[in-house]
Amino acid sequence: MTNPQSDLHNQLRRQNFIPRTGTEQLQLEQCQIMAQNFVELENGIAILSDIKNNKSYIYSGKLADELKIFQNPNQLEIESIWEDELFNILNADDVLQKHILELRFFQYIKMVAFEKRKDFSVISKLRLSGSSKSLIHKMFYFSDAHHKNVELALCLYHFDFLPSSDYTGMIINTANGSIIQQTEAENSNFLSAREKEILKMIRSGKRSKEIAESLFISINTVNRHRQNILEKMRVSNTTEACTLATKLKWI
After folding, report:
1. Same domain assignment for residues 120 and 223
2. Contact partners, residue 140, CB within 8 Å, separation at least 6
């Protein structure tokens, strides 16, 4: 099954990167300073992912000590753009929702004018597994000036002090305060009402012929809906689609 993290990883890494210029190197250095300043101010964790080179820089504040992660003082870099050591202690459903939202953000940011991209970010509430505490995660993408590729991702984590027990996440414009997309409500609209209806019937064990008869549509129409579901959810079969949609509470 192609999960959202794998899909996002592939889309990020398959961009048409060019050799880093002085401008991009300066941007990297500026982001490193931002990460360091955030950690000092918020006692948080900052992960700066260099997508082109498939590596990340880790900046750990007192939050990392509290969570007992990123404790190796010599490991300031990892050969990955994913902070799996942190993901492993988060609620798995929240991490899945986070990656779906970030995939949408990557697709959205490519349609935004280059000079305005810095105004947009993703913000998510992520629950700690086996704990009543949660983290706030905020992510920014930084693009190169030439090809407008997303080269860097800056992820910022700190404790959440607002009382709420559910996952939430959204793409926001920090310049004007608008919400571009929001989960779970937005994610639940990822499939059409008819696609959800068909997926529920598939989950209950109905075959295409039975679905067609129940909905008074042709088998070809049912099969077209099934194919659309697979393409939208990027899974290889309807069993996987049902499992993922159920997990995300879409059906």
Report:
1. no
2. 118, 120, 121, 153, 154
Question: Could you tell me the pLDDT band of residue 184, with boundaries at 50, 70 and 90?
Answer: low
Three-state helix/strand/coil letters over the chain: CCCHHHHHHHHHHCCCCCCCCHHHHHHHHHHHHHHHHHHHHHCCEEEEEECCCCEEEEEECHHHHHHCCCCCCCCCEECCCCCHHHHCCECHHHHHHHHHHHHHHHHHHCCCCHHHHHHEEEEEEEEECCCCCEEEEEEEEEECCCCCCEEEEEEEEEECCCCCCCCEEEEEECCCCEEEEEECHHHHCCCCHHHHHHHHHHHCCCCHHHHHHHHCCCHHHHHHHHHHHHHHHCCCCHHHHHHHHHHCCCC
Domain residues for 77? 4-186
Phi-psi region of 126 (alpha: psi -120 to 50; beta: other; left: phi over 0): beta
Lowest-pLDDT range, 29-43, 60-74, 195-209, 230-244? 230-244
Q: What is the maximum alpha-carbon separation in the chain?
A: 64
User: Tell me, what amino acid is at 90?
Assistant: L
Q: What is the CATH number of the domain that holds 210?
A: 1.10.10.10
Work out the pLDDT band at 234, boundaries 50, 70, 90. low
User: What's the pLDDT at 1?
Assistant: 40
Quote the number of domains for the chain: 2
pLDDT digits (tens, 9 = 90+) for 158-181: 999 987 767 788 999 999 999 887
Give the residues across from 141 on adjacent strands.
Answer: 153
C-alpha distances (whole Å) from 180 to each of 105, 194, 225 are: 10, 25, 27
